[in-house]
Design a protein that fits this description.
By secondary structure, the chain is α+β, with helices and mostly antiparallel strands. It has helices spanning 2-18, 22-40, 43-49, 52-57, 60-74; strands at 77-88, 99-108, 111-122, 128-135. The protein has a 4-stranded antiparallel sheet with strand order 1-2-3-4.
Amino acid sequence: MLRLAAALCLLAFAASAAGQDPRTVAVQSAARAWLAFIDRGDAQGAWNAGGKKFQTALSAELWAKELKDSQGITGRPTQRTIGPARFQSKVAGLPDGEYAQILFRTSFARKSSGVESVTLEHEADGQWRVIGYFPR
C-alpha cells in the first residue's frame, strides 16, 4: 500500500513538472543559480554571471558596493519562496526583447518579510541572464 501511494505521488509530480512551460523552468533555474551568488555574498560571481545589460549598467566595483550596502541593511537571504514568472517584450527604458520577472518572497537575516525582484533577459546565445535585482 505504501509503495502504491509513493508511486502515485511520483506520477502526480512528474505530470505537473511535464506540464510546466519550458521557458518558466529555464527562467526559474537561471534566477536560482544567479541568486546562489547573492546568498554567498559573492558580488563578483553575480556580476560575472549577469547579463550584458547588467554589466553595462554598473561596474563590478559599484555592484559590489551596492550589494554590500543592501545586505548591510537586510542581511543575507535566509529563505525564499519563488513566485510565478511574468514574461514581457517591453521593459521601461530597455529596447524590445524577451524579458522575464520573478518575485521571490524572501526572509533576510535582519528582515523577516521581504521581496526580491529578479529581471532576466533571453540573450542572443539562447541563455536567460539576470539584468536586474532589487531586494526590499
